[in-house]
Amino acid sequence: MILIGRSIWVPPRRWKLWSLPRPALCYVLGVDAVALMITAAAVASTVSGGVGHAEWLAFGVLTAASILHLESARGIERRREMAANTSPYTNLKSLWVFAGLLLLPLSLVVALIVISYSYSWIRVYGRTIAHRKVFSASTFILASAAAAATLRAGGLVTEPRVPTGPWQLVVVIGAATMWWLVNFALVIGAILLASPDTTARSALGNLADQLVVVAGLGLGVAVAALQASYPWVVPILMVTVLTLHRDLLLPQFQRAAGTDVKTGLATPAYWANAVPAELARAQSLRSSVGLLLLDLDKFKEINDTYGHPAGDQALRAVGESIRAEVRQGDLVARVGGDELAVLLPGASESELLEVAGRIRDRLSALSVAVETTNAKNAVIAGVPASIGAAVYPDVAETMDQLILAADDALLSAKRDGRNRIVAARPNPPGSTESVSG
Which sequence ranges are marked TM in the entry (predicted)? Predict the structure, then answer.
């Protein structure tokens, strides 16, 4: 038995780990196994060499600061976690881990990682997939081992390994770069193997988000330097850390705050604010905006046959499939129970219909493995959708007109037999034309 999130016990045979594709399963278990071997070797080295009083003190300070940081920011982190699925999830845990690398033996760095992830699993993430957190902790351990090896290779062997000259600074920067590269590469590999349909561009996520990790590594150097020389200044630095946490993660937090927790798509409220803003931008640029409204044709049957949890799994798979067929700047939202919408800035009608065709074909061929209400596994083969399409300013001049035109086209698609794409026509207003069957 294992505890998944808070108050949910799941037998080993039902762990979500086993539902991963075989290559992803082998990869995740391999990374976890290597992390365990590194941990064992680090512990053995520490037992033979011992740990000094100053190192235990630094470990206590960093552990307490890490927990305080997580507790203070857990509301933000919990919302951001909901949005992370097929792209790297960035956070500031690297701050305390890298500070530990400069002050502590590797075994205590591993202990810091385990404590940090265990606490955040219980207090921050809530009910989530346990193997993902174990894997994340493992990537931190592998990245830390690579960074520690870089420090030793550069001549920084004994703690504290705070830079005191130009060469030491170069070595520390090299170690920080190594830590980031190893962790980032391991996470990207897992995403691509677990979601074969995910494009490399989508898996990389927004590279600007990696500035959060870079900032964390830089702050880690500062924390280590203060802890080594002026430990009583570290609590004062915590105020700066918490402030920077909010500012650095604000763009991600804003995205997460507008994210539907079941699907990872934008919420209706976020959508309602985004559409008029995009139309105003298009008007100033004399550009266009494409809108697709989708209604899943078999969604009620899925809920009735397999249960609502299975329906939620199918809906999330649908959202991921749609996002895989649109550009990074396009917005995909859940605007109702089984109603989805896609906003495509700058799209012409031909481009909009091309995207709609790809989405329809992908959903028709979609295969989703779900767990039914009686704890049995099942496969949903195909989640077809009816799609209505409309383009601003071709068929509408306002947000309401654009949505009404796309909704009328969607109704026509459903009346014409479902699993169809219908485009709104400009003349007369609100008229539609079926473009595929």
Answer: 20-44, 96-122, 134-155, 167-195, 207-226
Closest CA to 355 of 303, 290, 409: 290
Instruction: Pick 268-436's CATH classification: 3.40.50.2300, 3.40.50.300, 3.30.70.270, 3.90.230.10.
Output: 3.30.70.270
Report which residue type is found at 84: A
Strand partners, 392: 289
Given 338, 394, 407, 408, the catalytic residue: 338
Domain ranges of the chain: 2-257, 268-436
* Sequence-ordered list of residues with C-beta below 8 angstroms from that of 371, at least 6 positions apart, any chain: 14, 309, 310, 313, 377, 378
Q: Summarize pLDDT for 293-350 with one digit per residue, the tens.
A: 998 887 788 777 777 777 778 888 888 888 888 887 788 888 887 888 999 998 888 9
Q: What does pTM read for this prediction?
A: 0.58
Q: Is 338 a catalytic residue?
A: yes
